[in-house]
C-alpha cells in the first residue's frame, strides 16, 4: 500500500510541475501564441507532461542509466522527496525478523501435461 501511495505522489501533477518550473522547462515547450498569452508556460498540466516527456526522451536517447541519474538529480534530490527515498529504501530491505532462506532443489516425478480442460457444451441454442 505504501508503494502505491509513494508512486502516486511521485508522478503527481503537483510534484512534476514543480520540478519542471524549477529547471525552467516551460520556456522550451513549443506552443501557440494564444497558449503562451493565456499562461500556458505556467500551466501545471503542461509542465508535468513536459517533465515526463523529458525523462522519456533522455531514456530513449541515452539509455536507462542517464535517465535514472536525471530522475535522481531533478526529481528525488529535493527535501520533500526524502519520504519517497525512505519508502524506496524500506522496500529494498526485508522486514525485521524475517530471515531469508534458500529452498533446496527437490526433483520429483514429472506430471502429465494437459492441454485441454473439461468443459460442458450445449448444442441447443433455445430452451
3D structure, described in words:
The protein is built from 6 helices and no strands. The protein has 127 residues and is an all-alpha fold. The protein has one domain: Ribonuclease iii, N-terminal Endonuclease Domain, Chain A.
Total tally of structural domains: 1
Rg from alpha-carbon coordinates: 25 Å
| Average pLDDT | 76
CATH superfamily: Ribonuclease III domain
Q: Could you give the count of β-strands?
A: 0
CATH class term: Mainly Alpha
- Unreliable stretches, pLDDT < 50, 5 or more residues? none
Second-tier CATH architecture: Orthogonal Bundle
Structural class: mainly alpha
Do you know the CATH topology?
Answer: Ribonuclease iii, N-terminal Endonuclease Domain, Chain A
Main pleated-sheet profile: none
The amount of beta strand, in percent, is under 5%
What sort of overall outline do the alpha carbons produce when their principal axes are compared? elongated
Amino acid at each position: 500500500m505504501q508503494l502505491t501511495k509513494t508512486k502516486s505522489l511521485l508522478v503527481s501533477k503537483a510534484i512534476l510541475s514543480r520540478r519542471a518550473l524549477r529547471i525552467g522547462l516551460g520556456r522550451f515547450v513549443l506552443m501557440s501564441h494564444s497558449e503562451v498569452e493565456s499562461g500556458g508556460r505556467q500551466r501545471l498540466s503542461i509542465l508535468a507532461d513536459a517533465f515526463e516527456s523529458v525523462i522519456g526522451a533522455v531514456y530513449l536517447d541515452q539509455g536507462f542509466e542517464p535517465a535514472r541519474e536525471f530522475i535522481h538529480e531533478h526529481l528525488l534530490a529535493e527535501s520533500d522527496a526524502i519520504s519517497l527515498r525512505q519508502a524506496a529504501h524500506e522496500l529494498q530491505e526485508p522486514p525485521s525478523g524475517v530471515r531469508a532462506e534458500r529452498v533446496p532443489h527437490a526433483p520429483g516425478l514429472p506430471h502429465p501435461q494437459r492441454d485441454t480442460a473439461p468443459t460442458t457444451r450445449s448444442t441447443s441454442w433455445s430452451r
